[in-house]
Write a structure and sequence with these properties.
The complex is a heterodimer of chains A (481) and B (315). Chain A is α+β, with helices and mostly antiparallel strands and 481 residues long. Helix content of chain A is 31%, strand content 22%. Chain A has a five-stranded mixed β-sheet with strand order 1-21-20-17-16. The longest helix of chain A is centred in the N-terminal third of the chain and has 25 residues, at 75-99. Chain B is built from 16 helices and no strands. Chain B has helices spanning 3-33, 45-52, 56-61, 68-76, 85-98, 105-124, 130-154, 159-187, 191-195, 200-209, 213-220, 226-234, 243-261, 266-279, 283-289, 291-312. In chain B, helix 1 runs antiparallel to helix 5, helix 1 (3-33) packs antiparallel against helix 10 (200-209) and helix 13 (243-261) packs antiparallel against helix 14 (266-279). Classes of the chains: A alpha+beta (481), B mainly alpha (315).
């Protein structure tokens, strides 16, 4: 399978967007680059950007490996990507509004009713209710991959509580500290206004009673959650309280936080805690992380939750396969971003095909995430394939399958110099009451081991800074030591 | 601000202050223990450090022999001593991590950096020398200086700052009082004639433990007298670790809180009561009524204030 490298063209020459970087790389030596890599790691440790790995005792706080070479996207490419992202998230939001309302897309026969109503991500408490300003997916992180210089594919629409944006922001800060000379060779679009945009988004969706000065809080499961660093980072940048369930209580359908000055009413909650744990009275009764009565306050319209409850039905892998139809149905437009061709194992023909071609396909659980519970056919052993065959036969509805894509590669810095590794991209899309916006860039995740396709941080993937640069080529300066 | 945040800030400050006090107390005791017996170098010195740090009982229960090496290990790195320097820094960081949003970058980096450095000290300590212990104690003092400096120079002057100052001064008053509680017998006026100059080293160790060795001479301009040492640590407002100076700060910070919240409560009243008592006191009164009784009573009242703050601000 021929791989598309984002820096090097098929002719062995660097692509236009990478010309300056490539020339710069020729002018620095590997040892110097390594020392920068170590410095970066030191910086990350000191700032405390760590994540927790569940089920690993000895290293409860780990660093995500960071690669010091930027991933570059030209402004042209970005503009198309941005249009596609806005289109997709707009459609997702209309879809949620529809299925929790009239269900026109079901009546039109485009999506089977049981795929929606029997979906574990569907929340019956939301049926017939409308969140403030009809916004469901305030924050999403859409996973994108490339296979050539033309096309962007969407792998997943993360519409629940996507994480990683703090890495996007901190990666840039660290890069600016380590490689000022590299920034002077490029016109890199800034991303530092993300917190500002996020705050504007959250303010715009406050319930009507708090239109003036809404009190906003970020709700975290607590410091043992794998993304706690990000929660505290964002709360700090936004200047809002970082609350846990125990800091909140509900009285007469109104949410309050416990402060040193007594109870204070909360209007908007940016919650980084899953639906299941939000309210022990409605969802999991054993949840110690949530707030009793929160759903009642939400249903009464007294508080905005971002994202809304029940968005999981829109980003699961079964709904994913219908995204092109969803975009056409609500917007009357052709999708700008492509879907990876997907076999729905619930359909008999597709299942037969998948079972016959297991060794070529990637098989995923419909509700899985984080790279767990999937089969990568070309890299799997016979035994693993047979195990999945049994699982598939037993419960075909629970699986989808996709051809293995020839993911693009980007150069990373390794001990011997530089080497290509597979990457994906997670841009963050903000959907407010009035508009949808994306900061130029996103989190590039990179599979640090050769030939690996798994970029998830929970499985050893790393990250890179992502640059959107002007297409105009700036004059390169002679040498940098 | 969130009550939980206030709680975390308050305890964060207490743990940092405690770590600082412990390192100074250990240093002072090492000096004293290394003196020849005729100069006051006594075996029981290590027992005093344990007592003044409030860990004598748990040390005995741990079954360790009462020897320098074991006491130092227990007070510095022992994981099973909740009050060891290691655990103070560890708990300080846990509290800090929970309230990252209430700390400035400088404060967080001071704590997190110290935590990482402490781990490397901890990992190599088995093979290390006494010199290494000196480095470690220096490092702990430096940490509290940079944390404290970070707080002073970068924090907004709002309730977050006031709660963290409260934690610091309540802990500091407690530490000074415990030190006096353990050493009161060398400070009684009659000691001067009994022990003669031999007690000089005891007094100076005591002053070193609260970084007041040079301050003494600047304040009194006379040779070391036990009642003056007690006076310095209890009643001198210019001495930053004296009980009265701590209470001046406690009252001020509680008043700032009360003004911001428009509410005076039991905590403010208790603090003002104690401050008034200290202001109206002379060393003659203290010695007449018994130094030991005074100090034990103060420790109880100071703890009581801690509880009242917790209750009033819903920790």
């Amino acid at each position: 399978m021929l791989q598309f490298d984002e820096m090097m063209g098929a002719n062995g020459q660097p692509r236009v967007a990478y010309q300056n970087l490539s020339q710069w790389l020729n002018s620095v030596d590997a040892q110097w680059l390594s020392s920068r890599r170590e410095q970066a790691e030191l910086l990350f440790r000191r700032i405390g950007i760590t994540f927790a790995v569940y089920g690993s005792q000895e290293a409860t706080e780990r660093l995500i490996p960071f690669d010091v070479l930027p991933r570059i996207i030209s402004r042209n490419e970005w503009e198309r990507l941005e249009r596609g992202l806005i289109q997709r998230v707009t459609a997702l939001n209309l879809f949620l509004k529809d299925i929790y309302g009239d269900g026109q897309i079901i009546k039109a026969g485009i999506i089977p009713a049981d795929l929606i109503y029997r979906n574990p991500g569907f929340c019956s408490e939301m049926f017939g209710r409308r969140p403030p300003h009809d916004v469901y997916v305030h924050i999403s992180g859409v996973d994108i991959v490339r296979t050539d210089d033309q096309n962007f594919y969407v792998l997943e629409d993360n519409a629940r509580t996507p994480s990683g944006v703090s890495y996007m922001l901190e990666n840039r800060e660290v890069m600016m500290r380590l490689f000022p000379e590299l920034f002077s060779l490029h016109r890199v679009a800034p991303i530092e206004d993300y917190p500002n945009e996020l705050l504007a988004t959250l303010r715009s969706v406050s319930p009507p009673h708090a239109a003036g000065e809404p009190v906003i809080a970020l709700m975290t499961p607590g410091q043992y959650n794998s993304a706690f660093y990000e929660h505290s980072f964002l709360a700090d940048k936004l200047g809002i309280e970082l609350v846990e369930g125990r800091d909140l209580f509900v009285r007469d359908d109104i949410v309050y936080m416990r402060t040193t000055e007594g109870p204070r009413r909360v209007d908007v909650i940016y919650r980084r805690i899953d639906d299941d744990f939000l309210d022990p009275l409605v969802f999991r009764a054993d949840s110690a992380l949530g707030v009793a009565g929160l759903m009642g306050a939400y249903q009464a319209g007294n508080v905005t939750l971002a994202n809304a409850v029940g968005t999981g039905v829109a980003d699961d892998k079964a709904t994913y396969t219908y995204m092109p139809e969803i975009i056409r149905f609500y917007l009357g437009e052709a999708p700008i971003l492509l879907n990876v061709p997907t076999y729905r194992c619930r359909e008999a023909d597709a299942l037969t095909y998948v079972l016959e071609h297991l060794s070529e396909l990637v098989v995923k659980e419909v509700n899985g995430s984080g790279g767990y519970g999937m089969l990568v056919g070309p890299h799997a052993s016979k035994a693993q394939i047979e195990e999945f065959r049994l699982k598939l036969r037993a419960n075909p509805d629970n699986f989808i399958a996709q051809p293995t894509l020839a993911l693009s590669t980007c150069p990373i810095s390794v001990a011997q110099g530089i080497a290509p590794r597979h990457v994906d991209l997670r841009p963050f899309v903000l959907h407010g009451a009035k508009n949808v916006r994306v900061v130029p860039g996103g989190l590039t995740r990179v599979a640090m081991t050769e030939n690996s396709l798994v970029v998830n941080s929970s499985q050893g993937g790393g990250t890179k800074d992502t640059w959107v640069i002007d297409d105009v080529l700036t004059e390169i300066r002679p040498t940098i030591s | 601000m969130l009550s939980r945040t206030a709680d975390n800030l308050y305890w964060l400050a207490r743990y940092m202050e405690r770590a600082d006090f412990l390192s100074r107390a250990i240093e002072a005791s090492r000096r004293l223990a290394s003196l020849p017996k005729t100069y006051g170098g006594v075996e029981s010195e290590w027992d005093s450090v344990l007592l003044s740090s409030g860990s004598a009982e748990s040390f005995a229960a741990s079954g360790r022999p009462l020897e320098e090496e074991h006491v130092i290990e227990y007070l510095t790195f022992a994981a099973d001593n909740p009050g060891s320097i290691r655990n103070c820094l560890y708990l300080a960081r846990t509290n800090a991590r929970a309230v990252r949003t209430a700390l400035t970058v400088e404060m967080w980096e001071a704590i997190n950096g110290a935590f990482l450095e402490m781990q490397s000290f901890e990992n190599r300590r088995k093979t290390t020398s006494k010199e290494e212990l000196t480095h470690f104690l220096e490092f702990v003092k430096r940490t509290s200086l940079s944390y404290d400096g970070g707080a002073y120079r970068t924090m907004l002057r709002n309730d977050a700052y006031w709660f963290s100052r409260l934690g610091l001064f309540i802990e500091r008053a407690d530490n000074t009082a415990r030190l006096l509680d353990v050493k009161y017998h060398v400070l009684l006026p009659e000691k001067e004639s009994i022990g003669g100059s031999l007690d000089y080293f005891q007094w100076s160790a005591l002053l070193r433990a609260v970084s007041a060795h040079n301050a003494y001479h600047w304040v009194y301009r006379t040779s070391m007298k036990p009642w003056l040492v007690a006076d310095l640590l209890i009643l001198r407002p210019e001495m930053p670790r004296s009980l009265i100076s701590c209470y001046e700060s406690i009252v001020r910070n509680l008043d700032l809180l009360a003004r911001a919240h428009s509410r005076q409560g039991p905590a403010q009243r208790q603090a003002r009561k104690l401050h008034n008592q200290l202001q109206n006191l002379t060393m003659e009164n203290v010695f007449q009524n018994g130094l030991h009784e005074f100090v034990s009573n103060f420790i109880v009242e100071n703890n009581q204030l801690g509880l009242l703050i917790s209750e009033q601000y819903l920790f």
